[in-house]
Write a structure and sequence with these properties.
Layout (H helix, E strand, L loop, with lengths): L5 H22 L3 H8 L3 E6 L6 H12 L8 E6 L6 H9 L6 E4 L4 H7 L12 E5 L5 E6 L7 H6 L4 E5 L5 H12 L5 E5 L5 H8 L4 E5 H9 L3 E7 L22 H9 L7 E3 L5 H16 L1 H9 L7 E2 H12 L3 H11 L5
Parallel strand pairs: 1-2, 1-3, 6-7
Antiparallel strand pairs: 3-10, 4-10, 4-11, 5-8, 5-9
Helix pairs in contact: 2-11, 5-14, 7-10
Length: 345
């Protein structure tokens, strides 16, 4: 059999490469085609907590502007509170994957999934991640009426510290329980059932000593001198709170793996996602519309007026961070399971 000259192989290789390149171009999701699907339809945004608080505020502000960049006729915000955001997240996960139902829920559900918390029917890695409007520090605050004035007062363990949280699996609950283990806070008592702005009111009434939240969500309480920051959950302290150390500065020996999981979620803010299986071109349309909303000058002005942080992460980055957090080592997962089975009131 006569062998073909090498030049023929090179020509065939180039031709094949061109064909593969054209194939990949055709396979890439088209946001324009995806956007056409939404024309004249209703987009529902599920918020996994009741009205009030950061998740609800971000969702309603996005809802006001997304019609400028996605040709839907109506945007409905629906609050589905309960079980520390688990009920709302379950509802988004089980929604029809047509792109018409998206939601925002607690990133602390990553830890709830790792721990095998009851009621979780979702897989955080499989959500169709759209993006995060805010990437900001989380802080631990105490009421100025509380006898606790600093982190040192809490770690001293001379009296019970009551911490407000939403529910098992919610980010504030997870953060409190992780800190309880990392800093060996034996007198920390987590009290669940506070949703939206309930925790702020509870602190003002003296029912609880403190809470953990994103900087933007607790900033009004801090600025109005109803609360003080005692810890920044991050790698560096914040200059506006010179008396509050960063978590990375106070991690005891042997607790670094658990603290690393906690710090890895600090970037995720208030994430938005759709159910698994949203067609790629529709997901890309949602991501582009979401990104454009977050860059919109009117949206940013409204966010500033509402004292919201806008420091976005795109959908692909969000998906990667979630996936990395879910790959926590076995010993950390075991620790998380023991933390999440601690009794809560």
């Amino acid at each position: 059999m006569k062998r073909l000259p090498p030049r023929m192989f090179r020509t065939a290789g180039v031709f094949l490469g061109v064909l593969l390149g054209l194939s990949s171009v055709r396979a890439a999701p088209s946001p324009e085609a995806g956007a056409d699907f939404f024309r004249g339809k209703t987009l529902t945004i599920v918020v996994a907590t009741k009205p009030g608080g950061g998740y609800d505020t971000y969702a309603r502000l996005v809802a006001r502007y997304i019609r400028k960049y996605l040709p839907v006729s109506t945007v409905v915000v629906r609050n589905v509170p309960g079980a520390g955001h688990i009920i709302g997240a379950n509802e988004v996960y089980a929604a029809r994957p047509d792109g018409l139902t998206i939601g925002t829920f607690n990133k602390g559900l990553i830890v709830a999934q790792l721990a095998g918390v009851g009621g979780v029917t979702f897989d955080m890695a499989k959500f169709s991640w759209i993006g995060v409007p805010d990437s900001e520090p989380r802080v631990w605050i105490v009421s100025k009426q509380s006898p606790f004035k600093s982190l040192r007062d809490v770690t001293a363990g001379t009296r019970t510290f009551t911490e407000a949280a939403n529910g098992l699996g919610s980010e504030d609950y997870v953060d409190a329980m992780l800190l309880k283990s990392i800093l060996d806070l034996r007198t920390l008592k987590v009290v669940t059932g506070y949703q939206g702005s309930d925790a702020d009111l509870a602190m003002m009434r003296g029912e609880v000593d403190g809470q953990i939240g994103s900087l933007s969500s607790v900033d009004p309480l801090v600025r109005n001198e109803g609360a003080r920051v005692i810890l920044v959950i991050g790698k560096t302290p914040l200059p506006q709170f010179p008396d509050a150390p960063a978590l990375s500065q106070v991690i005891p020996p042997g607790k670094m793996p658990l603290a690393t999981l906690m710090l890895s979620q600090a970037l995720l803010g208030h994430p938005f996602a759709g159910p698994p299986g949203v067609p790629p071109e529709r997901l890309e349309a949602l991501r582009q519309a979401f990104d454009r909303v977050l860059r919109d000058p009117e949206f940013r002005a409204a966010a500033q007026k509402a004292q919201l942080i806008i420091n976005p992460l795109d959908g692909a980055t969000t998906a990667r961070l979630v996936d990395e957090a879910l790959r926590a080592p076995r010993d950390v997962v075991d620790l998380v399971k023991s933390i999440m089975t601690a009794p809560a009131k």
